[in-house]
Amino acid sequence: MGNCTGVSEAALTILPDTNNTPAATGFSLSQDEDPEDSCRSPFIGSDLEDAVYGQIATILQEQQNFYLEGYKVPCIKRRLAVRIRAVGGNDPDAYIELLRENMHEQEQLLATLSIHVSQFFRNGSVFKVLEKQILPELLEISRHSSSKLRIWSVGCANGEEPYSLALLCQKQRYQEDLLSIVGTDLSPEALTRAKRGFFPPERVQGVPEEMLADFFIKSGQQYRLIEQIRERVQFFRHDIIADQPFYRANLILCRNLLIYFSRAQQQQIMEILAAALLPGGYLVLGRAETMALGSRKLFVCIDPAERIYRRLPGTA
Ligand SMILES: C[S@@+](CC[C@H](N)C(=O)[O-])C[C@H]1O[C@@H](n2cnc3c(N)ncnc32)[C@H](O)[C@@H]1O
User: Fold this and answer.
1) Ligand 1, residues 27, 202, 260: which to mutate, most atoms within 8 A of Cβ?
2) How many distinct structural domains can be found in the chain?
3) pLDDT at 136
4) Is 289 in the pocket of ligand 1 (CB under 6 A)?
């Protein structure tokens, strides 16, 4: 799904063509469910037959260019059941007919499958390690090699994660032209929200008070990140499975995304991320995520509690 074209010095090496966005509107669970729990909970609730699942998957693939393959089937089934109930019926066949004919319902379904829950400095201790240890080290390496420090936040939702990194870099007064921070997500809506930079109070509660005062402007019930920080992050629509990866990253954050995928798909994503990282580059996973056994030849774990891994040189 989706093509990747264009090269920009300002971003990482390969940038996706953001105009070529099939109507996939993002993915995973509901807007307000905690992703760290949702897909790990035992499958409750849906006795949706495989044949129904298969037909829905085909419609989404053919008409929305959205591939369900690789996602955890119980998670998806549970969400599908929610949507089928929400349209007022318990008749999967009628729902399939509706879905086949009705583009709006296809979009609604994709929205139901979506979750963009995030917050600034989520799992705060990992940002401390990034600030004190990883970013200074990477910046030093970049200075010596006269190349930019390239950071990629995969599945960045509404931008909280890459913006947190931008805030840390601002705090350390890292020179702007030495840095490239890119946030990517499958969901165009999440990316639009990211670019606008308005956040409700619960999303900014991890922001230190002084930072909140210096870099956010209260706007009604929301907080708006100031332009100076917003423009330090570039956002692109990108599907980690289907699109060309970005290359030559020094640091990749891929947090609370793997959890939605089957083990086999997770393994494949690890290979994609390993290829995208420069040797010695760092990968950060989410608290609830672990690296599949088969990927451990690609990375060494340098901080088990914070799920920080380092790319081993010379392995593909
Ligand atoms: C729970 S959010 C994680 C946000 C952030 N990384 C964090 O940890 O707070 C997961 C994000 O992954 C995105 N996503 C799901 N499938 C994806 C895919 N195949 N490629 C890229 N992003 C994807 C969703 O749209 C969602 O915004």
Assistant:
1) 27
2) 2
3) 94
4) no
